[in-house]
Known about the structure:
By secondary structure, the chain is an alpha+beta fold. The protein folds into 2 domains: 32-115, Sandwich (Immunoglobulin-like), CATH 2.60.40; 132-240, Immunoglobulin-like, CATH 2.60.40. It contains 6 helices and 19 strands. The chain has a 5-stranded mixed sheet, with no helix packed on it. A hairpin with a 6-residue loop joins strand 4 and strand 5.
Amino acid sequence: MKTNxxxxxxxxxxxxxxxxxxxxxxxxLEEEMSPPIADLSISPSVIIADETVSHFKxxxxxxxxxxxxxxxxxxxxxxxxxxxxxxxxxxxKEITLTVSGVLGFDKTTEKILVYAMNPGCLNYVSPKTQNxxxxxxxxxxxxxxxxxxxxxxxxxxxxxxxxYHSDSWLSGYYKPFESYATPANSTLRLKYQSSDLIVGNDWxxxxxxxxxxxxxxxxxxxxxxxxxxxxxxxxxxxxxxx
Length: 242
């Protein structure tokens, strides 16, 4: 009687597995396969929280059938090959991709920086640009003041005015609290739910012009005149940061 040597090998391994190490012979399919090698690509190079649509592509090699993405602190996990994502929070992100298959798994990690605002905005290094340290200083020195806010659009075109709650900066979340379309050469009293919006001198503000040009986010207290619980400022000063 002929003996199937491969089958015999499998049976011996099954019986002796608790006592000895045993390598089963590879199947024809496994002979053609290769272990997974994790690889990824991320674009674009400049990513801004709550604004940029980031493209994540699984470029792994070898044979794999499942993938897991980990997008960093306070973000999320994805279990698909390639996808688009908008980051909720700024900061350094450690992106990890793990791919798995019948021959094992592999993972790769890449670090990226998600900006709170566009680093190419006008006068990014202006001392009037909003930041977390500025807010903490206002609060620690007990110099916080609040009031209504008037914004004069002194551009010859309509602009979008956006305001940012100070708490969002301290939590790493940079989505505007509210945005307002402001006609050219007009002054707008900012409202929220039909009432005057009350802001603090630690809040942030920015403008977006019709051609898409965006200012950096400025600290309201730095670029406004405060009188009788009213902040008054101009669109041109928001844009310039001075």
